[in-house]
Design a protein that fits this description.
By secondary structure, this protein is an all-alpha fold. It contains 5 helices and no strands. The relative contact order is 0.16.
């Protein structure tokens, strides 16, 4: 299964505007194997977070992007939870990666 299909199976479904933004943020990663969903979603979230942090200001116009980062991280952890043995390591790696983005 590809990542786009895996995302389409999540319930409850994201609102259409958020779902579209997630798809745009993921880009070609949507066609990748869903087995890598956790890493792909964290990578996309990190990229978008970097863009957000580079903006001179982040007002209401950034709300959808912030929600998208949040949704991608949520999906990353949902995917990671499918392999409970590696969940803690993946969580640590994701938190380290996202925190480094903010520095």
């Amino acid at each position: 299964m590809i990542l786009a299909g895996w995302l389409g199976q999540r319930t409850p479904a994201a609102p259409a505007v958020l779902s579209e933004r997630i798809q745009r943020t993921l880009g070609v990663r949507c066609e990748a194997d869903a087995a890598a969903a956790s890493e792909l979603c964290v990578a996309a979230a990190q990229e978008l977070l970097s863009e957000l942090l580079a903006r001179p200001s982040a007002g209401r116009e950034s709300a959808l992007d912030l929600l998208t980062v949040d949704a991608l991280v949520t999906y990353a952890f949902e995917a990671a939870s499918e392999d409970i043995d590696s969940l803690a390591a993946r969580a640590d790696a994701a938190m380290t990666r996202l925190a480094a983005t903010a520095q």
